Design the sequence.
């Protein structure tokens, strides 16, 4: 009890006085609760800790043999004569947000090798396998890209500013490639000093580049979310097809796959296991919400919807001993308001899933404290602590697994909610908790 009181005092010192918080620590093997402290007894906003449950539901479905096909298909309608496609090329997405420009380039080379030289119609982006209603983003930034069945590079675009000779404007490049992206460049390369380059996004395909960059500077990089990932993917595919020597007479557009299409190529997607590893390791919101929609297709067919995916989540949670209402989840990532969970419930969940055959994958998907993933910059380093972090303006959270100094395996769940923005020192609370658990002999 003394230890728990001391830890509670240390946590309180780091948090705003009006913060609601709770920490629960339990024995991973028998579920015995070791520490339960804090001033919150009800449900709290968990932010990205929701990804733990999204990952668990996905891994459980995969273990049951319900494998998701997240490949990207390249199809055409019409006919092919003398290397000319009379009709459209369709790029049909299935939720692989890791689709890359390199994937499109390889596909374009493959088409060129088969003898295709020209397309009379359009490059059509087909996103019909997802209905994204209810998952719209309100936050801005590369980490909050829109959900879509089709998109490139986590539905973002990367800009590089490369210095030239002093007095000249720098070179600006974009990846994935897209001929519709426009730059207004007022920046200049200078002989020395510090870089003052700024890149401002005005709307989806328009950017302002200003400031100064030293001629001996390394290239500088910015990443932005894409407002319409599917349209951007279609335009990028048209660009790489042209680069491969295939003439496109039509335009990029969004549409639904027409009848009577023929498959030209398939770009394999990642497995659910691979997605979970990337999603938890780097806390990728777009991967989590795309995965939610994919889950919805496994039981109830196309299209994937938020409601279908949440049904799978709730069934998963109930299977592990938590009745309806114990966990309120409204998306796969934890971005939307309305998701609530008690730290005690989350700790019990972590104990329960540690006994499943798919647990090793979930465990390996969690970053190690102070070493990698979202925990790499922490001030506590210990490879025996793996955890998922969660962060919003008014939320800091951490949950996962660790080992105390006697070798006992622990689970822990910590969530703090505040009425205002949390100060920087409050976000280091998780490190203090893990250090305490590693160094103390808990009774």
Sequence:
């Amino acid at each position: 009890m003394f230890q728990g009181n001391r830890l509670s005092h240390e946590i309180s010192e780091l948090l705003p006085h009006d913060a609601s918080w709770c920490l629960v620590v339990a024995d991973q093997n028998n579920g015995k609760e070791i520490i339960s402290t804090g001033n919150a007894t009800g449900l709290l906003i968990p932010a990205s800790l929701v990804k733990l449950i999204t990952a668990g539901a996905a891994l459980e479905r995969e273990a049951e043999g319900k494998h998701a096909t997240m490949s990207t298909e390249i199809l055409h309608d019409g006919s092919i004569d003398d290397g000319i496609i009379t009709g459209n090329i369709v790029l049909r997405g299935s939720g692989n947000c890791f689709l890359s420009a390199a994937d499109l380039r390889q596909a374009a080379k493959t088409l060129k090798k088969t003898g295709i030289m020209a397309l009379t119609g359009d490059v059509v982006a087909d996103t019909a396998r997802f209905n994204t209603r209810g998952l719209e983003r309100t936050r801005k930034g590369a980490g909050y890209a829109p959900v879509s069945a089709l998109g490139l590079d986590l539905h973002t675009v990367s800009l590089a500013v490369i210095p030239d000779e002093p007095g000249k404007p720098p070179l600006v490049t974009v990846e994935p490639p897209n001929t519709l992206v426009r730059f207004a460049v007022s920046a200049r390369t200078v002989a020395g000093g510090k870089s003052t380059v700024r890149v401002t996004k005005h709307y989806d395909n328009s950017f302002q580049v200003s400031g100064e960059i030293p001629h001996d500077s390394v290239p500088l990089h910015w990443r932005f979310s894409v407002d319409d990932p599917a349209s951007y993917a279609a335009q990028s595919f048209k660009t790489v097809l042209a680069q491969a020597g295939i003439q496109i007479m039509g335009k990029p557009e969004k549409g639904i796959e027409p009848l009577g299409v023929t498959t030209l190529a398939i770009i394999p997607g990642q497995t659910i296991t691979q997605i979970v590893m990337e999603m938890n390791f780097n806390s990728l919101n777009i991967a989590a919400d795309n995965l939610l929609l994919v889950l919805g297709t496994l039981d109830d067919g196309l299209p994937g919807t938020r409601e279908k995916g949440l049904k799978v989540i709730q069934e998963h949670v109930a299977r592990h001993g938590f009745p309806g209402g114990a966990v309120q989840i409204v998306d796969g990532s934890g971005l939307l308001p309305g998701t609530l969970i008690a730290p005690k419930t989350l700790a019990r969940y972590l104990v329960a899933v540690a006994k499943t055959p798919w647990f090793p994958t979930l465990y390996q998907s969690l970053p190690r404290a102070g070493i990698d993933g979202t925990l790499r910059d922490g001030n506590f380093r210990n490879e025996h602590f793996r955890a998922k972090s969660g962060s919003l303006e008014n939320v800091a959270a951490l949950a996962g697994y660790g080992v105390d100094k006697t070798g006992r395996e622990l689970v822990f769940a910590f969530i703090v909610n505040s009425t205002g923005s949390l100060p920087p020192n409050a976000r280091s609370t998780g490190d203090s908790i893990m250090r305490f658990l590693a160094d103390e002999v808990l009774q």
